[in-house]
């Protein structure tokens, strides 16, 4: 695999033989994959393929039943989400998880909390240190607001924003962590075409200009094939294909997973 600037890169995230079962449901079954530093990787598959469950294991929300997850040489299997965030893995969610009563600025500022060294007690005892840190974090958040073209909305409560803008704020909150790896779970779901184009532009800039590794789940195949360097395909919890967008589109197993066999298509049409 290649990195953000096209050169060969070392593996940053290695997932080995990972499985996750919920009762009799095999959400993820023996999946192995690696992601290069600075890469832009998409994970695709039909509904119920195990994509979000895989992201939940990477980000610590689920503990794998089997297998291991190694980030930059460190085994993070089963590590708590807060600790994984500190290590530099941030994510967005399928369903928007903003604090609707808070402003755009405050929601994004919340993403800086793991980077703040001054705790509550030290904020009282060493007011000058805490105040200086607050100013520095606020400056970074303002940079993100400008990057995401939200300057005129910084004081607006997120509850009053259009859906696409709320998705953009959620991306900003994840970016406020200054992540090494950014996990995006359907960042363009429910958006119109213009909103999708804007989001794709922001994702590409984060990857190519900032060098941030991006792992993306997305159902819009046109977007996936346009921006991805590498595509991994899951079906019923298993990895059935991976490669460049062109390779994956031609793979017979992928075509079968999305379209079904000729017999299945005939039965569905009857």
Mean pLDDT: 87
Largest sheet: 6 strands, mixed
Number of helices: 11
**What is the β-strand count?**
10
The Rg value, from CA coordinates, equals: 20 Å
Percent of sequence in beta strands: 15-25%
State the CATH topology of the largest domain: Rossmann fold
**Which parts are unreliable, with pLDDT below 50 for 5 consecutive residues or more?**
1-8, 118-127, 262-270
**What would you say the CATH architecture of the largest domain is?**
3-Layer(aba) Sandwich
In total, how many domains does the architecture comprise?
2
Q: What share of residues is helical?
A: 25-40%
Q: Globular, elongated, flat, extended or rod-shaped: what is the shape?
A: globular
Write the layout of secondary structure elements.
Layout: E1 11-22, E2 25-36, E3 40-44, H1 51-58, E4 66-71, E5 74-75, H2 81-87, E6 89-91, H3 104-110, H4 120-125, H5 127-147, H6 163-175, E7 181-185, H7 193-208, E8 213-217, H8 221-227, E9 230-235, E10 238-243, H9 245-250, H10 252-259, H11 262-269
Parallel strand pairs: 3-8, 3-9, 6-7, 7-8
Antiparallel strand pairs: 1-2, 1-4, 4-5, 9-10
